[in-house]
Specification:
Chain A has about 100 residues and is of the alpha+beta class. Chain A has 4 helices and 4 strands. Chain B has about 260 residues and is mainly alpha-helical. Chain B folds into 2 domains: about 30-95, no CATH class; about 100-220. In chain B, about 70% of the residues lie in helices and about 5% in strands. Classes of the chains: A alpha+beta (about 100), B mainly alpha (about 260). The interface of A and B includes residues 36, 60 and 68 of A.
């Protein structure tokens, strides 16, 4: 699952004012997780959801299957759900191509 | 050679004793034992369509026995696209509308792809004298509308999936699905969750009270659907530093729920 996310993040690394990739992680052990970040070259920031798949963020978001993906536009509106692989790249590119907020 | 003959003979003897004994006991055997025997026969390789008539007969003869509903549910789950399922729905409506056990069976009714299944749930919601049955029927109608909405949405977005839909749901119900309006379905679905919350909030089920289930579903519809503003996320990152989703307003955001299990 990581290679594709890594390439998306890398491809858009110079767009940090317009794009961000964020994770919500359900693993128990934060120390192990830090090792995983280094080993898998995971550069994006994640919320640590209290070490459980039943953590408060996942409960609020009603996440029962993982990986689960949401793509939000610049106004914070959910535009795509469970988009994977190339489709995820296309979805992000489509939203980046939309007019910036507040500009005609 | 001779051992083969002996084998054949003993088989005949066994058949001779077993078959008539079974036939004569059929009427007097307790419903639970008859039900178990049918399940065993299925395990041993008997085909579902052959057993269906016997399950239906058992349910019809002993409507007040708990195995009646179990038998009808068996028919619904094993023969969801066949006329036997419609017959089972008819018996559920005729004999079990006020039966508390029918509440838990509603989920199987909702997964039977016929217009009759939806009608039965509606009848149960309107007419059952048992509050738990009315509540479960309401919940399963909401689920059914949810499912219908997602199929109709898929048909709209991917017309090429029509063949798969027809195959899964059968031609008749597939055609019915095609005729439904997405906006109407979504509106009706929300109304049923609202009704669950208003009228059946305290009804217990195997996965929580109906009020809690409805609240969760309404939150998902109103805040986690495409086109809605995403709920705030606030919490610590892996290194213990707090941050918020709203800090990133103005950017395109990918949220990825991940972890190892």
């Amino acid at each position: 699952m990581y290679p594709h996310e890594r390439s998306l993040v890398k491809r858009l690394q110079d767009q940090e004012k317009r794009f961000v990739f964020l994770g919500i992680n359900s693993d128990e052990d934060r120390e192990e997780l830090k090792k995983t970040l280094a080993k898998e070259e995971i550069t994006w920031r994640s919320w640590w959801d209290q070490g459980s798949p039943d953590g408060p963020i996942q409960t609020k978001w009603d996440v029962t299957e993982r990986p689960a993906i949401y793509v939000l536009d610049a106004r914070g509106v959910i535009r795509f759900k469970d988009t994977k692989g190339d489709e995820l790249d296309k979805a992000v590119d489509a939203l980046l191509a939309e007019r910036p907020v507040g500009k005609p | 050679m001779s051992s083969k003959i002996i084998c054949g003979l003993s088989l005949m003897l066994i058949l001779f004793y077993v078959v008539p004994a079974n036939a004569s006991q059929k009427e007097s055997t307790a419903p639970a034992a008859r039900y178990q025997k049918l399940l065993d026969e299925y395990e041993e390789g008997a085909k579902a369509p052959e057993l269906a008539a016997l399950f239906l007969e058992l349910a019809e003869q002993h409507p007040s026995d708990p195995v009646a509903i179990d038998s009808l549910v068996w028919v619904l789950t094993k023969l969801r696209l066949r006329p036997e399922a419609t017959r089972a729905l008819g018996l559920l409506e005729r004999d079990h509308l006020n039966d508390e056990q029918f509440g838990a069976a509603c989920r199987h009714v909702a997964r039977t792809p016929t217009v009759a299944a939806e009608k039965l749930l509606r009848t149960a919601l309107e007419k059952s004298r048992n509050e738990k049955v009315r509540g479960q029927a309401c919940r399963q109608l909401a689920y059914l509308l949810d499912q219908q909405a997602s199929v109709v949405d898929q048909l709209k977005k991917e017309p090429e999936s029509a063949d798969r839909v027809m195959q899964f749901y059968g031609a008749e119900y597939g055609k019915h699905l095609k005729s439904l309006d997405l906006e109407q379905l979504e509106k009706k679905r929300e109304q049923h969750y609202e009704l669950m919350l208003k009228s059946f909030a305290d009804v217990p089920t195997s996965d929580g009270k109906l009020g809690e289930i409805a609240e969760k579903a309404l939150f998902r519809i109103r805040h986690l659907s495409i086109g809605r503003v995403a709920p705030e996320i606030e919490g610590e990152d892996i290194f213990g530093k707090t941050f918020k989703l709203s800090e990133h307003r103005g950017k395109v955001v990918v949220l990825s729920f991940w972890g190892h299990w």
